[in-house]
Amino acid sequence: MFAQGILRSARTGLLAGGLASGLLAAGLMASSPALAQETIKIGAPLALTGGLADEGHKQDVVWKMWVEKVNAAGGIPVGDKKLKVELIEYDYQSEGQRASQLAEKLINDDKVQFLFSPFGSGHTKIVAGVGERYQVPTIACVASSESVYDQTLKYLFGTLSPNGGMTTAMVAFFKEKFPQTKTIAVLGRDDVFPKSMAEGIAKAAEAGGLNVVYKELYPVGTMDHAAALSSIKAAKPDWIYVTGYTQDLILARKQMQDLGVTAPIVTMVTGPSYKEFTEGLGPLANGISSSSWWHHLTSYEGQGVWPTTAAFYEDFKARTKGDPDYVHGSCAAAGEVIVDALARAGSLDKAKVRDAIAATDIQTFYGPIKFGPNGMNLSRELPIIQVQDGTIKVLAPAAIKNADMIAMP
Amino acid sequence: MAIYLQIISNGLMLGALYACLAVGFSLVWGVLNVINMLHGSFIILGGYLTFFAWHLYGIHPVVMLPIVAALMFALGFALQKLVINRVVSAPVLTTLTLTFGLDMILYNAMTYWFTATPRRITLDLGAVDLGSVVLPVDRLIGTALALVLTLLLYGVMRGSSIGRAIVAVRMDRSAAELMGIRTDRIYAITFGIGALMAGVAGVVFATVFPITTNVTGIWLGKAFVVCVVGGLGSVPGALVGGLVLGLVESFAGHWFGPQQAITAGFVLMLVLLVTRPTGLIGVRGYE
């Protein structure tokens, strides 16, 4: 009798337990698609530590600003619903190999619908390859080398314009301002973007009638430019053009000063676009010219959470106490591409969304965004800038110019 | 001709800096048989200490030299005593993995605290123009400091009882122990001196190169090449190795373009590994 009682209660318990878990499972099954649809997931492998940490943090800060703004407004309209955005970031420690693994994890484990690509053409190439494999649209906001987009990747889109736009216009502008300019010396870092800029300017200079008296690349990891600069000094160029990342350029400028190497025009790409460059060099930065994809003095208007460049600038300034550079501008605009494409696609279907992104033609605080056949934002007039008295002045285009060009002091 | 004088002086000044950065690494490798992967980060840590002392409190790098030296010695001594001594007699791969792990912690902690933004001490002391040759003053001072410090270390190794004990441990650990030398302590002192030399190299470098965690691996690589070229575990070896590497990079940069400058250094290392594994002035049996 006692044993029967136990058995019965055990059976009831099992039944009840089974029923409960069944119900739970049913509830989960019913709720999981709903949950999945309630947010739009964007994955970002980011360089939050390691060599590219500064650049990674720039992307991180504007993406977070953008997500907060979008969610505060209720989310992104998709069809008849508004979906919130969830940004999933992983630190890839500035190691390309890890970026690729994390991109796979974001797609397979976290089920992201979009990828934001990390800093630089090299790492964008890696992440875009993964996005392509899984047909996940990837928006690159800091990759401007055409070689990245020439791989017939259908799911990669970039908000920067091609490098080419930075060279031809610059040669023409400098020739107009300094008509005596006849020769140029080019020293470039042997890395995807700096190399393409060095080759681009040499081609543009030749096409513009200048004589390229020195053109060499230096390898990644160079900690001494004395040999190259001594050779440049001997060639006596009218224009010295150096490409690289901030630490290379600070070193090169310092050694130019040490070795007495100078010219009426000294251009460093992308040096002055970053405040770390002017801060690191102090007075030595004065007179150095450069080009950039965007400057906060531009005045664009358009759709999105920031209706004008000024609105973005104010918001950014309030948040970080600093000025935004092109990395901030371009990456914040990358989010608007997704908003616009989802509104037009009206669903989360990968192929539809991809086609909607390809057909993007919008105006934003960052400027117009319209992708060419290779997925790159179309060319436009890019600002030519110069450091004068420690601050960045815009020399061209005329619409946003706030200073005249000066010769190197 | 003028350009060759400039290239030679560029090479010698660079070479002295290389010697300064490599001498501590060479000592630790030679005496402890530990390939200290922390060395590059130690240099940058010394650089950051100098930079922030100058930037925040206006302390001149020269004043920071003894302070950084003392701090780095203490750090190196403690690290060896508390952590590395536990595995110091294990195969070289174990100690390499340990210092590699410690380096990742230090490297990422520095990137976290200081960010990877390149920083620079903007002393800009100008240059001495001798007509055909221009000598930047900060590099000249850096060169002089590097030479003085390296020679000072040489003097300590040759003339002091600690120095002789280090050399004795390097030659034969068991025999040194039988002679009453406390090898654990000597190991800790040696590692401390290694860290000290890295730290003072950092002080010197802070006035010449941008300071950023990005370059820790580059400096470690240079230290490695200098040791192989010059010979392991000896102060003169590091000096000769540094100067030769500086000259080779300088000439290769001029003749074959800057793209080949670093390659030339590694080619030299490979050639020496094949033809003279003890390095240019190393002693057989200590490679």
UniProtKB/TrEMBL annotation, chain A:
Q: Where is the Leucine-binding protein domain?
A: 39-390
| A GO biological-process term | amino acid transport
Signal peptide (from-to) = 1-36
Give UniProt keywords alphabetically. Answer: Amino-acid transport, Signal, Transport
Query: Which InterPro entries does its entry note?
Result: BCAA_transport (IPR051010), Leu-bd (IPR028081), Peripla_BP_I (IPR028082)
The UniProt similarity line reads:
Belongs to the leucine-binding protein family.
Supply the name of the protein: Branched-chain amino acid ABC transporter substrate-binding protein
Automatic annotation (TrEMBL), chain B:
What InterPro entries does the database record attribute to this sequence?
ABC_transp_permease (IPR001851), BCAA_transport_permease (IPR052157)
Query: Where mainly found?
Result: membrane
Membrane topology per the entry is:
Multi-pass membrane protein
Gene Ontology BP annotations: amino acid transport
Per UniProt, subcellular location reads as: Cell membrane
Question: Where does the chain cross the membrane?
Answer: 12-32, 63-80, 92-114, 134-156, 186-211, 223-248, 260-283
The UniProt keywords, alphabetically, are: Amino-acid transport, Cell membrane, Membrane, Transmembrane, Transmembrane helix, Transport
A single Gene Ontology CC term: plasma membrane
Pfam families registered for this protein in UniProt: BPD_transp_2
Q: Name the domain of life this protein comes from.
A: Bacteria
GO molecular function per UniProt: transmembrane transporter activity
Xref: PANTHER family: AMINO ACID ABC TRANSPORTER PERMEASE PROTEIN (PTHR11795:SF445), BRANCHED-CHAIN AMINO ACID TRANSPORT SYSTEM PERMEASE PROTEIN LIVH (PTHR11795)
> What family is reported?
Belongs to the binding-protein-dependent transport system permease family. LivHM subfamily.
What protein does this entry describe?
Branched-chain amino acid ABC transporter permease
What is the species of this protein? Answer: Ancylobacter dichloromethanicus
**Lineage, opening ranks:** Bacteria, Pseudomonadati, Pseudomonadota, Alphaproteobacteria, Hyphomicrobiales
